[in-house]
Amino acid sequence: MFQSASDLAAMAEALSRSTDYRVLRRLAPRPTSMPASGQETKIGILLDTETTGLDHARDEVIELGMVKFDYLPDGRIVSVRDTFSAFNEPSAPIPPDVTALTGITDDMVAGHSIDEAAVNAFVEGAVITIAHNSGFDRKFAERCWPVFEGMAWGCSATEVDWRGHGFAGAQLGYLLNGAGFFHQAHRAVDDCHALLEILDFMLPTTGSPALALLLDTARRKTVRIWAEQSPFELKDSLKRRGYRWSDGTDGRSKSWYVDVCESALDDELTFLRTEIYLRDVEPRLQTLTAFTRFSGRI
Prior knowledge:
Layout: H1 5-16, E1 25-26, E2 42-51, E3 61-71, E4 77-87, H2 96-102, H3 106-109, H4 116-123, E5 128-131, H5 134-144, E6 153-155, H6 172-178, E7 181-182, H7 188-199, H8 210-219, E8 222-227, H9 235-240, E9 244-247, E10 254-261, H10 265-276, E11 284-288
Parallel strand pairs: 1-7, 2-5, 5-6
Antiparallel strand pairs: 2-3, 3-4, 8-10, 8-11, 9-10
């Protein structure tokens, strides 16, 4: 029997009131608007790229999506100013596994390029760029559009402890489902719209939107500790501690490293001295901020 949109909405509302059911609604992008006059707002950019692979020095962007939004000092998102979506034809055919994941084909990108001037104009006035994997997206964005080198960046995947706030994990789909929505994944601007709703979601543990927590984390300095020339046989201890391996690309050390907040620095140095090197050492340290964190230039 045919059900009207209002009938379906009423059914969904009834189900959502029951403790035996959960209702996921298709994500509808917010309409564009300007913030109300008199509001003290700042501008942010949500960014997502689809690429031909994972190597930012070799692979190419095939789609760029961005959402420009206004937010209040308490992290509440009040308006969407504009959206940006563009294809780029790479120098070689798109790998089949990328097409299978994203749905983007060679025909869709044929003849397209992403205008740098248009990107620069779109991000003008923004104080922060946020991606759901800034360690990936920032490197591609900086290589293609230098305007992103001078911007502050935040990472919604790593700078919010989603599990600690009741979510099943940090994957975009998990988070969107936890907020009550589903969407078409792995298309750049659609993922940006999804991220907007996730960041505007009121965390029951804090009573504030997730964006407020991300901004607070992004503003803090972190310290990168390089465990250079650490004993090979202790690599598993470093991995369990959260250290990651740098293979020496981009002029970086071929070494294990970890990023910690400034308050945890002394504890981490004690761990290295007592359990890894077994002597007094002074590891190489790098102080990172939102302007340098996640960048391939660091």
